[in-house]
Automatic annotation (TrEMBL):
Catalytic activity: S-sulfanyl-L-cysteinyl-[protein] + uridine(34) in tRNA + AH2 + ATP = 2-thiouridine(34) in tRNA + L-cysteinyl-[protein] + A + AMP + diphosphate + H(+)
Broad enzyme group: transferase
EC number assigned by the record: 2.8.1.13
Domain tRNA-specific 2-thiouridylase MnmA-like C-terminal stretches: 286-350
An example Gene Ontology molecular-function term: tRNA-uridine 2-sulfurtransferase activity
Source organism of the structure: Microbacterium flavum
Protein name according to UniProt: tRNA-specific 2-thiouridylase MnmA
Amino acid sequence: MRILAAMSGGVDSAVAAARAVEAGHDVVGVHLALSRAGGTLRTGSRGCCTIEDAMDARRAADLLGIPFYVWDFSERFREDVIADFVSEYQAGRTPNPCMRCNEKIKFAALLERALELGFDAVCTGHYATLVHAPEGLELHRASDEAKDQSYVLGVLTAEQLAHTYFPLGTTPSKAVVRAEAAARGLTVAQKPDSHDICFIPDGDTRGWLAEKVGTQTGDIVDRSGAVVGSHEGAHAFTVGQRRGLSLGMPAPDGKPRFVLEVRPVTNTVVVGPKDALATAEIAGVRRSWAGRAPASDAFRCHVQIRAHAEPVPAHAVIGSDGVVVRPDVPFEGVAPGQTAVLYEGTRVIGQFTIDRTVSAAPLPV
């Protein structure tokens, strides 16, 4: 196959490209420039797609003996990922920019260009597996559960999966990948994994949002509506948050309070006890299926609501109002804007963006 290897500058994508070459494919490496700040530097494990990452990717491609290019996707990234992130927070939702990047950039914009240029597939260093089942191509969890990234790939469609290549999916551990990189002479063998939001490398999401949308004083209220504090912008809060509330009035029982709801229209943040975070139902309209659609409109599955959350057994129903999921055991701290990924065993069924939640804890009388 003719394969375009997306090379981030990290060890996973470098080894994935190396395995594609070793498998006999015609491989070309590409690094995506997602920021117009050309002199951006990397700080330890924070951030990605920096000038140093581009140089690391080029060195890996040179060692592998494959052509290498840098493609400027910064404008598309700004519109589809960064602008979406800001607007979602302004609407009181909690977005996942990695999901949006996979959906809009790596497996949409990049894949579209790859196909236009005659490539058969895009290769990445994601930890997930593709299975050719009798019913069609399926996306499954990786062998290494600790590194499994099938959750952030849940947005991929059947057509996109048909043109993807995940060489690391059956690798038993990240340690094996690092050892292989060292044996191949790749200088990124011990490079730290990137984490946090790539376009907020210092990790200060609240400060970054304040610069983008400004500040506006509003009330923090309890579940009865009583004002218990104030804030400088509802966009800085998310459901389940405990730190940074600065409440002027302690709870009657002396226990800590958590963000239960963000109301952007009134610039209000609602707080309450931890047990009020229990969620009995989630639902959403915007959905996609990773391969074949469910055979029935009502089915059992496991649902994962965060990249590293435990999957929860649940009952799902597809109707005119979208996908409705009722977990056997309540979720904790679910925020609108998060992505719910549905599984059947290790297979990814599909995903939806959470629009609505129903609390499992009744309001106090």
